[in-house]
Specification:
alpha/beta; binds zinc ion; globular; single chain; eight-stranded parallel sheet; TIM Barrel; 8 helices; binds D-xylitol-5-phosphate
Amino acid sequence: MLIAPSLLSCDFSKFGSEIQRMDLAGADYMHLDVMDGHFVPNITFGAPVIKYVRPFTDKVFDVHLMISDPLRYIDDFCDAGADIITFHIESDSDPVSTIEKIKSRGVKAGLVLKPNTPAHAVYEYLEMLDMVLVMTVEPGFGGQSFMADMLPKIRELKNEITARGLDVLIEADGGIGENNISLCAEAGVDVAVAGTAVFKADDPAVAIAKLKNEN
Ligand code: DX5
Ligand code: ZN
């Protein structure tokens, strides 16, 4: 299981050094939550900020776009140094055009499912995707409780990916910690996002190691 700390829970006054701290703590990916205050009721940061923190690590920048019209901004996030860009199937951009745009820039592409969106909503795009992000909370805020009723959806998605012989990663995002990460692993999760569980821990390195060992 790869661990992707969500920087939404970090001290933004030290964004760059927080990314360095996560790198040293053993993070596999840096999960960067972009919110526009329109697609979700919260505003975080955009491509200019990601550009400035890019030099602080060589680890994967896993950019989660919780924005309207993501297609319009793909070039900006690719220029800023994104390695993976995930956008919501519920957003107003055409999925195929957006996936093709991301991949045309040599960046990995993923679709995100809100809790109420069924797994089959992304099936027609699976052959084009590198990753599917299954939200285990309603998008918009860190520190929410894990939605265990998303586990069957993850299992269903894993079965479909396996049945088609695809190597699409499944990432789960929201409320993940020591007490539920083994359930995520059993359901078929490949990458676990953890914000609160890592940043609120006394020692993030210990927290990350525990999350890796729990599954
Ligand atoms: C929520 C974000 C998540 C969140 C995870 O909209 O997409 O990445 O920051 O944070 P925790 O692990 O605290 O739920
Ligand atoms: Zn996220």
